[in-house]
Amino acid sequence: MRASTKRFVPDEAESPDELAIALLHLYAYQAAAELIHTGDHVLDVGFGEGYGAQILVSAGAEYLGLELDPELVAHARERYGHAFDTYDGIRISAPDGTFDVVVSFQVIEHIPDPLPWLTEIRRVLEPKGRAIFTTPNRVYRVGDGERPWNRHHVREFTAEEFRALLGRVFSDVHVYGIRASDEIESVVRARAGRARKLARIDRLGLRYRLPEGFDTRVRRMLRRARQPDVDRDRFTVEALWHEEPADVGLDLLALARS
After folding, report:
1. What is the H or E stretch that residue 45 is in?
2. Which of 12, 36, 81, 207 is buried most, with the most CB atoms less than 10 Å from its CB?
3. Which letter does DSSP use for residue 88 in this model?
4. d(Cα 26, Cα 32) in Å, to the nearest integer?
């Protein structure tokens, strides 16, 4: 199965950029795992590659992952061996209040109209349950009037925008910024700086019109271009945390209750 810009595989990370991205992806699942109790029914909406299932199952979750693409579902079943299924992007085939925890990481920025999607997540969440979301922090990634440089992102959010959107569906919302050691943060912010420079050069938005396969190869080449050497032993999930205020985070992490 071919990788795409929609699917990131942490254990294939090579460059400092990729290592840092991998840690942000993994941290979200680790943070969720700390909130799970043995036997909790956990729904993962938009599981992507599928690696997060093992983290949540190891924490005691009764896990189900949903994705749009049948190929992704087949791949995840074969590689990770947990419960994965397809859905239509909004409607979840489960009764009201089925899940104790719903997680959805790096998904909401892809959705043109997130309100029906969020409302469905709230519907299947147990009344005292918790939904956990992450999304990129647009503050250091996208300037006023700029489009997200990831072609699959419809919109990126500030902490306040993210909080306000979730607050239209959930009654109790807290948004945190995911932080990291100086070394990891410098890699992530430098990557964003390079992307913004390229975006300014491409004023006509030609990058959005490239065939996806070619775009994927270009992004991979840029990620793996010559970068300063880093101490890989210090690139660990333990070097990340989340805190308030959220605005300074690399990613935004939201905890919401219905």
Report:
1. strand 41-45
2. 36
3. -
4. 10
Residue holding tokens 């993210």? 162
What is the C-alpha separation between 202 and 196, in angstroms, rounded? 10
Q: Alpha helix (H) ranges present in 81-180? A: 114-124, 159-167
Distance of alpha carbon 215 from alpha carbon 151, whole angstroms: 9
Are 126 and 99 a contacting pair, CB within 8 Å?
A: yes
Q: What is the pLDDT of residue 51?
A: 96
pTM of the shown model: 0.89
Distance CA 23, CA 19 (A): 6
What φ, ψ does residue 8 adopt, rounded to 5°?
-115, 135
Tokens coding 20: 């840092």
**Per-residue pLDDT tens over the stretch 221-257:** 555 555 666 687 899 999 999 999 999 999 999 999 9
Domain ranges of the chain: 16-257
- Alpha-carbon span 137 to 142, nearest angstrom: 9
List residues bridging with 174 in a β-sheet.
Answer: 255
Domain 16-257: CATH superfamily, name plus number = Vaccinia Virus protein VP39 (3.40.50.150)
Distance separating alpha carbons of residues 92 and 210, to the nearest angstrom? 33
Name the least confident of 11-15, 36-40, 103-107, 125-129: 11-15
